[in-house]
Amino acid sequence: xxxxxxxxxxxxxxxxxxxxxxxxxxxxxxxxxxxxxxxxxxxxxxxxxxxxxxxxxxxxxxxxxxxxxxxxxxxxxxxxxxxxxxxxxxxxxxxxxxxxxxxxxxxxxxxxxxxxxxxxxxxxxxxxxxxxxxxxxxxxxxxxxxxxxxxxxxxxxxxxxxx
Length: 163
Fold this sequence. Notes:
With about 160 residues, this protein is mainly beta. It has one helix at about 5-10, and strands spanning about 25-30, 45, 50, 65, 70-75, 85-90, 100-105, 110-115, 125-130, 140-150, 155-160.
């Protein structure tokens, strides 16, 4: 018996390769299709209601209706820092003193991104990222939106976050 031949028969020529696919970006988009029932991980002030009439929502009905000072919408915590944030807003009979405070949470503190004064009376999409003015900080893992009412209401819809 040839030992070298038997060893060749028992050995396997195995080539293995492993492939890792790492996500480049994660996305979260929320259109509040369930109205005031908060999506998993979201916090909505208990007095927030909805708008369903034409012109008072972003991509699709409904939108959230913020109608009292101090009402808040808080996103869930993300798995990594956000690279962009966008949302749709429209002031409904607001005055220049009404505003929306947009804040990011860095794991320790809530930091102001922008206090949007003189809310737009036509629906707009606000977007924050590394090249926007104001800039989106590079370490936010959660966002909070607080309505400060002087007059009228705020329609709020279509939040999108890339992280």
